[in-house]
Design brief:
Helices cover 47% and strands 13% of the residues. It is an alpha/beta fold and 224 residues long. The strands form 2 sheets. A 5-stranded parallel beta sheet has the order 2-3-1-4-7, with helices on both faces. It has a two-stranded antiparallel ribbon with strand order 5-6. A hairpin with a 6-residue loop joins strand 5 and strand 6. It is globular and about 45 Å long. Bound molecules: adenosine monophosphate. Adenosine monophosphate (AMP) binds next to helix 2 and helix 3.
Length: 224
Amino acid sequence: MNKLNIVFIAPPAAGKGTFSGMLKEKYGFTHISAGDLLRNVSPSSSVYEEVQEVMKSGGLVREEIIITLLKEALSKDLGFGFILDGFPRNLDQAFAFGDLLKEVNLSVDKAIYLDVDVDTALKRVLGRLTCPNCKRDYNSLTGYNTPKDEGLCDDCHVSLDKRSDDNEESFRKRYETYMTKTQPVIKFFEDLNLLTRIDANKDANVTFKEIENVLGLGEKNDNN
Ligand code: AMP
């Protein structure tokens, strides 16, 4: 099967991370999350304080910083292809992404827009928990992946973490940033005939099947 390079565009908590993880596990994609690249910036880095501050407020980190991290990530072995989640987040980044792809000799095959209502997204954000050890995602409010023992990872039995920006105030700011800055990116990919919209308000397994179908991976799904 040919390699596939995918971009996810979505408001916060639409499921970018969840579906990227599912695709990675099932097909061997390389998941590149812009948010994770930034969260993993070393405390010894000269931009560490700046990155922490901007992320906490829900704003966008400077383009040079994210482009440098992304170039490094895209230059590694990408397995079945890459899934890029959280980038590009505005039109400037979309154009810079085009230049970066040329530099590393890659292209995008599909852009998937995960469309979710603001109230559903808020509920997901407020209940979101992650295992610091295996990185598995849980949710204490939505009924999807509820930890068996409250606050503990089912597999590692360690306390689950809550992201510092997963509060209502930061969510509202991130959602507003998305509406004003990221929405134009949808049109950008639409104009390139690469965009498919998927309703991400449904159960995660239903949405995942739709994503597989859009990517032409449905048959593999049915055979498993
Ligand atoms: P996420 O994990 O995608 O929800 O991103 C968490 C935070 O990281 C965002 O609220 C931004 O502060 C920052 N961030 C993630 N992706 C980008 C990006 N492409 N450009 C600038 N900042 C970003």
